[in-house]
Structure formats: C-alpha cells, structure tokens
Records
---
Amino acid sequence: MDQAILVAPDVNAAAEAVARLDAEHVKPVVALLAIFPEYEDWRFVLSSPALDQTHLLNAHIRVAEILRGSFFNTLPTTMIFPIKDPFIRELRRLFGKTKDVKGMRLGGQKIGNRLISAAYVYRIE
C-alpha cells in the first residue's frame, strides 16, 4: 500500500476529465482521486445525478464514451457512486458547504462507510 500512495496520480488529467464531464452535462457533485485500503491504488471517484441509474454499467459506459481516447494511461480506474451512497452523502454533509474544496487533501479517516487512505478533491457540492 505504501508504494501506491507514493506514486502520485495525474491531477491535471482528472481535472480535465471533470471539465469534460461538465461540458457534456454530467456535472459531478463529487469528484476526487482517492486511495481506499481495499484497492491499494488511486481511483477516480465520481457521483452525479446524471449517472444515478439502476444499472451501474450504463453509468460507466456513459463516462467512458465522454472520456474516450483522451486519458489512456493517465486516469486511474473510475468508481461511480450513487448520490445516496453513505460515502457520498457523508462527504457532501461534511464538505458540501465549504467555499472551495478544489485541491483539498483527505486521508486517514473514515467517511460514511469507507476508509480513505489518501484523496485529492476536485469537487464536493
């Protein structure tokens, strides 16, 4: 796990991915890069009302279509959470009214039902 934390993700690629999603009207209310202990590597975490569907595969397909070809090796695996997921709800409760969360770092804490080893935040609304 220590090696994954030492290898920094491409924060600019993830920022560009968030901008692309915004442009395609899939505005994420939560967007961050995070390491969860159960995966031990960086994940691109998204949650958006536009992605809240009964079939999670459809949400992943939509994101993949929007980001297709641009982030081949620079964007980590994407995780999409429903708006009502306890992790997303707690993030929004804790930080949703914070004026500017972009660039905020989280880590070593349990939020909702997940432990975060490290995180770089783009958006929490």
Note: The two ends are 29 Å apart (CA to CA).
---
Amino acid sequence: MKSLSALSLLGFLVLLVGLAGVPLFGQGQQPASQDPAAQSQPSTSPQSAQNQASQIFVGKIAKSNGDLVFKDAAGTSYKLDNTDQAKPFVGKSVKVTGTLDAPTNTIHVTNIEGPSS
C-alpha cells in the first residue's frame, strides 16, 4: 500500500508543478482583442492616399461623359482629383505622378507632364 500512495503523491506533485508553470508562460502578453472594429484595417480616405508612395502612370488624358479621365495603355480609365491640371493635356500622352485610391478608381494627382522631348 505504501508504494501506491507514494506513486499517487508523486503523480499529484508532478501535476501540481506542471500546472504551476502555466500562468508564467502567458505573463507579459496581452490578450488579442476580440472586437473586430478595434482591428487595424487600411483606410481609403484621401489622407491615407497621401501616406502611400507616389506612382507614375503613363497614358492619355481623355474626355468621358463630360469629365476628364486618365486612360492607361490597356484602356482602363481612372478619375482624376485635379482636372484643372489635366485640361492642357486633353488627347495627349502624359506621365501622371500621384497615388491611386483603388476603391474609388481615382488618381490623386501630384504632377502631370507631357511626353519627354
């Protein structure tokens, strides 16, 4: 009988020591937020477009439904947030520097240049 109670006591101590280490494993870590609204998601506001790296788009300025648009070589049309800057280039090949707001298909224009000479 002594060996059975010694084994039981030894098993209990092993279990106790094993469980004692569990809270130490998680210390220093904060639980992940379960609130989906608290998770970081990319913003589509113009401010986020300013934080993106500028890109260069090569194509033509064209009229579409009374508005000026930028058309790339594949024929895809993009809205321009600064049509005043694009007016002198209607029908011409251009290089547009800016950031693309993909959800609205709008290029936030920083510069428009004609073809290089």
Note: The first strand starts at residue 55 and ends at 64.
